[in-house]
Design a protein that fits this description.
Length: 167
């Protein structure tokens, strides 16, 4: 039976997992898709290949997370992603003109712990953050999409692009 289920899952090019929630407007808020998933009933966890986690909420920038592999806890409260992890936050179209940090942001690392319901992510590994004003690298990282904050813990360095002077 197990071999049959493994083949069944591998035939599907994309598997939409049970982590699909909707906003009050009826639009998807949280989705998790993967090329392959394996469920472990003893602790209700799932291991996924090529996961794609999307968080969308009205009036907030969309957030997507991709990786080579992931492990999702049984309560769906935590995702542990490994290998070529990329977090992309779209530009904030609701920002006030001239407000800093409102452009798109891309974060790359090799490991990331994501807490979808809180819209938070963290790692103790090296991260590279690229946004419109430059690139920052550091070891250890905390990201809060609701508060629009990023904290780097150590060995921080960066390169900033000159910004036009406003008159």
């Amino acid at each position: 039976m197990r071999a049959y289920l493994d083949r069944l899952v591998s035939w599907s090019p994309v598997l939409l997992l049970g982590a699909l929630t909707f906003s009050s407007q009826g639009k998807p808020h949280e989705t998790l898709a993967a090329a392959r998933a394996e469920h472990f009933p003893d602790n209700d966890t799932a291991e996924v290949s090529s996961p794609l986690l999307s968080l969308t909420e009205p009036d907030k920038p969309a957030l997507t997370v991709t990786a080579n592999k992931g492990k999702i806890t049984g309560d769906r409260e935590n995702a542990y992603l490994t290998g070529n992890v990329t977090v992309t936050r779209e530009a904030d179209t609701q920002a006030k003109p001239g407000e800093r940090g409102t452009g798109p942001i891309t974060v790359k690392t090799e490991y990331l712990h994501v807490i979808p319901k809180l819209e938070r992510a963290e790692t103790d590994k090296l991260v590279t953050i690229q946004e419109e004003s430059g690139i920052i690298r550091g070891t250890g990282f905390e990201f809060d999409n609701q508060a629009k904050t990023v904290k780097l813990r150590s060995q921080v360095s960066g390169t900033f692009q000159p910004q036009p002077v406003k008159k």
